[in-house]
Every structure is written in structure tokens, then in C-alpha cells.
Amino acid sequence: MPQAKVFITRRLPIELEQLRRRSPPQASLATVEVWPERQPPPYEILLEKVKEIDGLLCLLTDQIDRQLIKSGKLKVISQMAVGYNNIDICAATGRQIPVGHTPGVLTDATADFTWALLMAAARRVVEADRFTRAGLWQTWEPDLLLGPNVTGATLGIVGFGRIGQAIAHRAKGFEMRILYTSRQRCKPELEQSLGMEFATLEYVLQESDFVTLHTPSTDDTYHLISDCQFELMKRSAILINTARGTIVDPDSLYRALASGQIAGAAVDVTEPEPIPTDSLLLTLDNLIIAPHIGSASRQTRSKIATMAIANLIAGLTGDRLAYCVNPEIYNS
Predict the structure, then answer these.
(1) 191 has catalytic annotation
(2) Under 8 Å CB-to-CB from 263, ≥6 apart: which residues?
(3) Which of 48, 127, 197, 273 is catalytic?
(4) How far apart (Å, rounded) are the C-alpha atoms in residues 24 and 9?
(5) CB 315 within 8 A of CB 98
(6) Which of 29, 75, 91, 193 could disulfide-link 22, Cβ–Cβ 3.0 to 4.6 Å?
(7) What is the pLDDT of residue 23?
(8) % of the chain beyond a pLDDT of 90
(9) Does the annotation count 169 as an active-site position?
(10) SS3 45
């Protein structure tokens, strides 16, 4: 088969030899161009690239709209992410272009990081580090940087998919009371095994010492947590968000933290991303902000990239994508 052309919109944490070398050894499946910058390629660049490539490996930060899809001769679009809101799936399907994504591999890494944020916020680890580096540590003080217990506290989980369930399993080891709310109630045996209680969002917010968000980004969850919801929470409560920035109204979050309506928060996602450098949220000591690194374990990111490459290769060779967003194209 003729050599394909591939464009990858960011550097990946794996080698690309499986794309460049095929059997027989002298044959190459594709010539590969990787965008070298930290920032995503401008839309105008992508628009030009798709006119000459067969395969595109992209990220959530890339705008793959109808105009771009119709402008090219793509055989496959492979997204290195679970979500695909940035891709016009209808336009791709209309042109019989399979769209791949990488589901099911982020769960443990994201759950681990959620727990890291929860513990860091509870025990004020980031504040303590700044305190020490500023030369303010003079002696042991009984009331210095006090935070709440995690063991035995009440944890509220908003959204109970794979990551929410992984959080609940971890919480059991801390002997926490676990409340959860979700569109669908889970099986009674799972509730019983984890000692969980199903409740309304309002009840979860009122009762929880820690609230962690794990819902998808939809019209229904846009600014799900806003002024009214913060007013329901305990003044000692801590909010964790490793899901999507749009779930929390950033202005409401600032007001809740600045006024002491809640004690603290730790987030891995913001609205917008990246957070503007003049955001008032950056002035708060009781807020931890990470740069969307919930899945950033070496093993997980490598697996995600490998899945994305496998989807890309399948599309280039005419095979069915293992993880396809629009499998209906194979039925036509």
C-alpha cells in the first residue's frame, strides 16, 4: 500500500516506531509529522495540514470542526482522550471517517490524583510548603496549619461512573461515611459492600465534609455547583474537582472561598483552561489548582498514547478501530 501521511498535534510520551516501521522492515506505514510546540497548532495550520494527510492524531484542545473535516482527505481521526466534544462527529460520520478515542484507562490514575488533592487540601500541604519556603517556620506550634481529619469523615461523591466508584473503594479504607448522587442508582450489593448511601445532590452537599465531582460535561452539569450549592455546604467543607472545569462556576467558587462559605477546594480543571493569569482564584491560599494532570502517571499516559496510535494504524490500514466513537460507519 502507498505510504500514508500522518500529523500528530503534540509530542507523545511513547516512541512512534510502530507507525514508521512495518513488515517487511524496509516498508514504512506512514511519514509522521509531530507538532513541536507546547501550545496546540493554530486552527489555520490544522486546516492546511488536513489537505495533505491521511491520518490525524489530536487532543481535546484541537478544534476538529465540520469545515476542517470537509477540507481534507482524512481516512481516520484518532483522539488521545476519552472525550471528543472538540470533534464534529456527525461531519466525520458523513464522510465515512472513523473517529477513535481512548476510554477506560484513566480511572485509577485520576482516582489516585483526586485522593492526592483531597489529602493535600485537608492537611494544607501546599500552604505548609509555601510557609516553610518563606522562612516562617520558627518552632513547633500547637495551632499551626490545622486541618480536618480524613479518616471517619463524610465523603460526598457527585457522579458515580468508573472514577466515582474507584474513589468510593479508596474511601472505604479511610472508614469514611460515603454518600453519592448520580443519574442512576448503583446495584444494592455494591452499595452494601462499600457502605454507601444514595441521596440527592442537596443532601450530599449538606452532609459532606469533602465533596468530589465526577460528572461528565453536559448542558445539565454546566455550573452544577454555583452560589446556591455552596450555600448548602458546611463552612468546614472542602470541594474537589478532577472532572471538568465547567461543572463549577468559577465566580461562585471565588466567592465561597474568599468569604469562608467553604473551607477550601482543590481542582485539576478550570473554566477556562488554562486559568487566566489575572484570575482572582489565583490569589486564594485555600485553593489548590493543578494544570489538568489527573491522568499524568507515566504508565497511564503511555497506555493512552499507545491506544491512540493503534486506532490511527487501524484507520490507515482499513481495519476496524478498537475504540470507535462512530461504529455505525462500518454498517453502511
Answers:
(1) no
(2) 148, 235, 236, 237, 238, 286
(3) 273
(4) 28
(5) yes
(6) 29
(7) 45
(8) 93
(9) no
(10) helix
